[in-house]
């Protein structure tokens, strides 16, 4: 099912670049407190998690986007809104994103559904008897949808939401190499190079390829770094196998996908037709919102800006829980 979002941007934030940048850098939520915890893995690596301080309530697994972490504005915002709605959010840092390089050659990527599965199963074991939901942003949303399609009815999740997932990775990589969006690409690749080079210096025995400035777009970076380190033949194999759109028909849990038609990271070419969506999947489309922006009015005509996305995610998950 495809529905029209009720989101209305704040009067001065109809521009998608303003939505994206202001939500990330300026209109930041009040900082929340969480408990950091490291989980050692059987493969010799680790996952760094941040747990809500709440001691009761359904659990929501959070998956951040590319180069994100617990301090990302959208993670801080949704932590508060979920807690206020009676949930216990838990963030999984993708490998290498918590501020310390991970130990293996592999790190994370848009199709790392194996780590989504690991995270979800850990939370089910940690909180027996509690309903468990998941919310993924951008890259994290793509990996979550891939996981849901692969697992179908086998997943223990009660429901999920994906915010601004790329869905078709090649389309996103192409858009990042055009016009103003190159600025975002430059920033994100810079963060990825820093993370990769920190690991390469710390673990020289891994013999990792260098993330040189010559890898100046996602096609090059993913072909040289991401694809070979994660078992793909090349960048095309990686993008083809990990794009989440192909997994949408197989999802068997209530799932909401939120997407802004003016998202500067992608184009509407990534969007599925209604017939591609499983009965359990709702695609919510907004004319405005940018990429993980969605800064809105507190009420129609108001000049006060609110972080609508944080509240909306909590409302969607609460709706799923109350309908279960």
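^ structure tokens above, recovered residues below v
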């Amino acid at each position: 099912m495809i529905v029209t979002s009720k989101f209305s941007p704040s009067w001065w934030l109809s521009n998608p670049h303003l939505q994206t940048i202001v939500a990330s850098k300026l209109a930041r939520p009040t900082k929340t407190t969480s408990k950091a915890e490291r989980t050692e893995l059987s493969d010799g690596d680790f996952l760094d998690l941040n747990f809500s301080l709440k001691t009761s309530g359904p659990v929501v697994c959070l998956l951040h986007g590319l180069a994100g972490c617990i301090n990302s504005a959208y993670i801080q915002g949704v932590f508060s809104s979920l807690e206020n709605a009676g949930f216990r959010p838990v963030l999984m840092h993708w490998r290498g994103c918590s501020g310390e390089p991970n130990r293996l050659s592999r790190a994370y990527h848009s199709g790392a559904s194996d780590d989504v599965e690991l995270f979800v199963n850990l939370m089910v074991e940690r909180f027996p008897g509690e309903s468990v939901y998941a919310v993924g942003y951008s890259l994290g949303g793509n990996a979550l949808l891939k996981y849901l399609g692969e697992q179908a009815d086998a997943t223990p999740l009660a429901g999920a939401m994906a915010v601004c997932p790329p869905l078709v990775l090649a389309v996103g990589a192409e858009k990042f190499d055009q016009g103003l969006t190159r600025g975002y690409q430059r920033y994100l690749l810079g963060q990825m190079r820093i993370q990769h080079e920190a690991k390469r210096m710390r673990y020289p025995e891994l013999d990792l390829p260098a993330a040189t400035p010559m890898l100046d777009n996602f096609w090059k970076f993913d072909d040289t770094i991401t694809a070979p380190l994660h078992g793909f033949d090349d960048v095309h194999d990686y993008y083809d196998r990990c794009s989440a759109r192909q997994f949408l028909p197989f999802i068997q849990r209530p799932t909401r996908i939120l997407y802004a038609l003016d998202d500067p990271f992608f184009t509407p070419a990534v969007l599925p037709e209604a017939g591609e969506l499983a009965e359990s999947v709702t695609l919510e489309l907004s004319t405005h919102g940018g990429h993980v922006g969605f800064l809105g009015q507190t009420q129609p005509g108001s000049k006060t800006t609110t972080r609508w996305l944080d509240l909306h995610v909590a409302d969607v998950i609460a709706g799923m829980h109350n309908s279960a």
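The first strand starts at residue 2 and ends at 4.
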